[in-house]
């Protein structure tokens, strides 16, 4: 479809042109001697009605001068007359009288046209004259060889005289210019050839270059190309219209730059990356290079220095990726423009800077120094440098640089604060998780902890190993829903609670029951510690392993059961039906007991180890079970193998893995003695204790051990109704345990002078490292630990 369907109606011929106007001939007396068809079309009178008659009869009103007087003039005259039409209308017309003298016969040619049409034509001429002489749109005409033919005044001003370019090719106008629109061929000759060949105009091409009249400043024009054809439709050439849109284009660039800066600067919460983001956004649109200098305190996440001299030492950021990141020291003398910018908190332009302290090239043409300001604190300095662009930084570009720098400063300050908070969160996490597991003889241990929140580095998983009486160990792993500091705080509180309850020598099911009640209290609506929501999704598994019997008892509160690989290499998932998660208080928890052979490997884990968005939990458990078939490998290697099987990419949940390899205490390390409930057996217990210690080479402990055994056995025989069991265990310390069928526990008290008893447990507490009572299904066990010298 034609873009201009009415273009054929545009006619630049004058209405008084003989090919269009009404024409007649008058004799010397003003009578009509010639009447053309065009005159009949204009006024409607046929020739037979007007020929030979005075032309004055066609006038609707009396003019100032009669037609006969105009006919006797010796030079052309024109006037406006009101003419009578045949249908009675009055036509205001522009009339031109041109005298003719031929062989002594005087005649006058009269040409008339409607006055309104003439005025419209004159307006069109005025418009064309305005385009040629007054318009800010540059018009340039090229011939079919694409050589300059003509240019209007605007083009003449831009080229500092268009006459010198007439006959020269288009490429000679702006030798170093280029099209920056990419939707058409970037070469001007190709564009003009396309317009000449196809007749299709090309509109709105953006062209960047330096005008001969203003070579010191880069301009941008919007250019359009149209083909010129003659009356027969043959190409005459083409014309270019160009409009200088430099200010508008740069305003759009600034706006797009700000939009891009809003999306990119400060999104990483990393000080160094934010500095690189500022450089990536500003180069090359605003500057050829951007340097960012920060104090060491800001990079490390601490408060920026205050009250320091403007030239204090800074670190310059280098690199765009974490692998490339490095810093180099830089400082500025008090008289330098950099120091002036830092001292005044204002941007400073240096059009011809001296050699900078970082060894910058000497051909640098312009520099702009902008302080990084955020929350009334100076965080550093941003330097915008130009080398290829000779234009100095103008006021608008300075404003743009300041706004970009402000965005970067806020991002750097946020990253600094995040770095500080991240460090605090890591300290919190390290304080809540065990820094090192205590040495004990029951198990070998290895563990891995991977928080899902890689930005904060903390999560809600926890694990622990708790030494218990009788050389036993408590093993626990748990998971709090969510990530971050809140989950970590809840995790730390629950881990501490589990450790406290474990030291009461509660069995796993009883421990989880009590823990469930505490979590339920925290989840009540009136709980105002801010952690109740986290506590609503807590799972926990607790196990107790006894290296004397090889017996392991565990219970689960909504947590995945452990995977066991025995010494023969067979791997199986524990037949443990998990109870409800903590805080629901709906169903009881049950113990599961298993006898583990020496050297068995047990894997305690959270669901982040075996479950992700791409695979189900069963596949993850099979993957972990396959790793455990290598159970003869060192535990640290097994941990690495297990985590290496995790799918690549970010984790959906925290992942915690605790691997333990069981040990059994040898028969030579345990001595059992059953005593009837007879007070006379106390002496027998002391004798057997002395003999056993001598066998173990611990005779130096005989007196203390006999005292402890004597007191514990005496208490049991006094209050129990059945046999009393004495057990001695030689481990990292000497363990003395006395078990009976009574469920009442002895209490430590301070005896008065006249009391006959009450001093036994006081003596036991004084000579032992630890002592306590644990309850069993058949009664209780009182135990004491003695340090081996």
Give a quick rundown of the structure.
Helices cover 30% and strands 28% of the residues. It is an alpha+beta fold.
Question: Could you characterize what this model shows?
Answer:
The chain is an alpha+beta fold and 789 residues long. Helix content is 30%, strand content 28%. It has a six-stranded antiparallel beta sheet with strand order 7-6-11-10-9-8, with helices on both faces. It has a six-stranded antiparallel beta sheet with strand order 14-13-12-17-16-15, with helices on both faces. The chain has a five-stranded antiparallel beta sheet with strand order 2-1-5-4-3. A hairpin with a 2-residue loop joins strand 29 and strand 30 (733-740). Helix 7 (246-264) runs antiparallel to helix 8, helix 8 runs antiparallel to helix 11 and helix 12 (484-502) crosses helix 13 (508-522). The chain is rod-shaped, with a radius of gyration of 51 Å. The termini are far apart. Mean pLDDT is 83; it is low at 3-8, 353-362, 526-535 and 753-757.
Question: Strand portion, in percent?
Answer: 25-35%
Spans of at least 5 consecutive residues with low confidence: 3-8, 353-362, 526-535, 753-757
Shape: rod-shaped
How many beta-strand elements? Answer: 32
> In percent, how helical is the residue content?
25-40%
End-to-end C-alpha gap = 106 Å
Class from secondary-structure proportions: alpha+beta
How many H/I helical runs?
20
Largest beta sheet: strand ordering: 7-6-11-10-9-8
Task: Give a short account of the largest sheet.
Answer: 6 strands, antiparallel
Mean pLDDT: 83
Radius of gyration: 51 Å
Oligomer: single chain
């Amino acid at each position: 479809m034609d873009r201009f369907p009415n273009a054929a109606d545009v006619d630049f011929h004058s209405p008084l042109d003989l090919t269009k106007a009404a024409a007649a001939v008058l004799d010397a007396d003003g009578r009509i001697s010639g009447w053309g068809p065009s005159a009949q079309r204009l006024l409607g009178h046929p020739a037979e009605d007007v020929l030979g008659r005075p032309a004055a009869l066609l006038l609707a009103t009396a003019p100032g001068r009669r037609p006969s007087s105009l006919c006797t003039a010796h030079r052309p005259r024109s006037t406006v007359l009101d003419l009578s039409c045949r249908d009675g209308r009055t036509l205001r017309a522009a009339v031109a009288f041109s005298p003719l003298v031929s062989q002594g016969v005087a005649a006058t040619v009269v040409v008339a046209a409607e006055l309104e049409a003439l005025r419209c034509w004159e307006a069109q001429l005025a418009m064309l004259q305005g385009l040629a002489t007054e318009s800010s749109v540059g018009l340039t005409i090229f011939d079919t060889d694409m050589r300059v033919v003509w240019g209007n005044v605007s083009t003449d001003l831009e080229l500092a005289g268009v006459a010198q370019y007439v006959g020269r090719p288009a490429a000679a106008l702006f030798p170093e210019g280029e099209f920056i629109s990419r939707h058409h061929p970037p070469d001007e000759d190709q564009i003009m050839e396309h317009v000449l060949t196809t007749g299709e105009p090309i509109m709105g091409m953006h062209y960047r270059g330096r005008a001969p009249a203003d070579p010191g400043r880069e301009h941008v024009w919007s250019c359009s190309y149209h083909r010129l054809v003659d009356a027969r439709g043959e190409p005459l050439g083409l014309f270019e219209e160009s409009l200088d849109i430099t200010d508008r284009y740069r305003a759009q660039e600034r706006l797009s730059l700000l939009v891009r800066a809003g999306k990119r600067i400060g999104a990483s919460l990393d000080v160094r990356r934010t500095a690189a983001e500022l450089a990536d956004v500003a180069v090359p649109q605003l500057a050829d290079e951007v340097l960012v200098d920060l104090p060491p305190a800001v990079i490390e996440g601490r408060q920026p220095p205050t009250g320091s001299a403007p030239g204090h030492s800074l670190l310059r950021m280098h690199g765009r990726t974490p692998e490339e990141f490095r810093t180099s020291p830089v400082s500025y003398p008090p008289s330098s423009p950099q120091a002036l910018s830092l001292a005044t908190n204002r941007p400073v332009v240096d059009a011809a800077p001296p050699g900078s302290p970082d060894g910058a090239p000497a051909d640098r043409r312009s520099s702009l120094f902008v302080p990084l300001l955020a929350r009334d604190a100076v965080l550093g300095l941003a330097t915008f440098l130009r080398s290829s662009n000779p234009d100095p930084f103008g006021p608008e570009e300075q404003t743009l640089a300041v706004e970009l720098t402000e965005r970067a400063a806020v991002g750097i300050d946020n990253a600094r604060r995040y770095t500080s908070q991240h460090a605090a969160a890591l300290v919190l996490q390290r304080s809540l998780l065990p820094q090192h597991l205590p040495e004990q003889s029951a198990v070998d241990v290895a563990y891995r902890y991977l928080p899902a929140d890689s930005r904060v580095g903390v999560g809600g998983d926890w694990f622990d190993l708790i030494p218990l009486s009788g050389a036993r160990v408590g093993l626990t792993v748990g998971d709090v829903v969510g990530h971050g500091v809140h989950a970590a705080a809840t995790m730390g509180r629950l881990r501490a609670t589990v450790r406290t309850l474990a030291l009461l020598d509660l069995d796993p099911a009883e421990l989880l029951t009590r823990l469930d009640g505490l979590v339920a209290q925290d989840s009540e609506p009136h709980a105002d510690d801010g952690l109740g929501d986290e506590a609503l999704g807590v799972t926990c598994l607790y196990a107790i392993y006894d290296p004397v019997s090889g017996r392991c008892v565990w219970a689960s509160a909504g947590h995945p059961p452990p995977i066991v690989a025995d010494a023969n290499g067979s791997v199986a998932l524990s037949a443990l039906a998990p109870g409800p998660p903590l805080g629901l208080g709906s169903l009881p928890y049950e113990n599961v007991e298993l006898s583990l052979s020496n050297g068995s490997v047990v894997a305690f884990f959270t669901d982040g180890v075996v479950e992700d968005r791409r695979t189900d939990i069963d596949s993850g458990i099979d993957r972990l079970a396959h790793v455990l078939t290598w159970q003869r490998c060192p535990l640290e290697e097994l941990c690495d193998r297990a985590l290496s099987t995790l799918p690549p990419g970010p984790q959906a949940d925290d992942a915690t893995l605790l691997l333990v390899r069981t040990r059994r205490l040898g028969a030579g390390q345990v001595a059992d003695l059953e005593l009837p409930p007879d007070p006379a057996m106390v002496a027998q217990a002391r004798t057997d204790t002395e003999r056993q210690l001598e066998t173990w080479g611990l005779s130096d402990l005989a007196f203390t051990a006999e005292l402890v055994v004597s007191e514990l056995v005496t208490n049991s025989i006094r209050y129990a109704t059945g046999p009393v069991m004495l057990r001695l265990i030689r481990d990292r310390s000497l363990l003395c345990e006395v078990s009976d069928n009574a469920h009442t526990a002895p209490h430590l008290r301070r005896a008065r002078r006249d009391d006959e008893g009450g001093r036994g447990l006081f003596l036991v507490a004084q000579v032992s490292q630890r002592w306590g009572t644990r309850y069993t299904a058949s009664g209780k066990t009182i135990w004491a630990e003695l340090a081996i010298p």
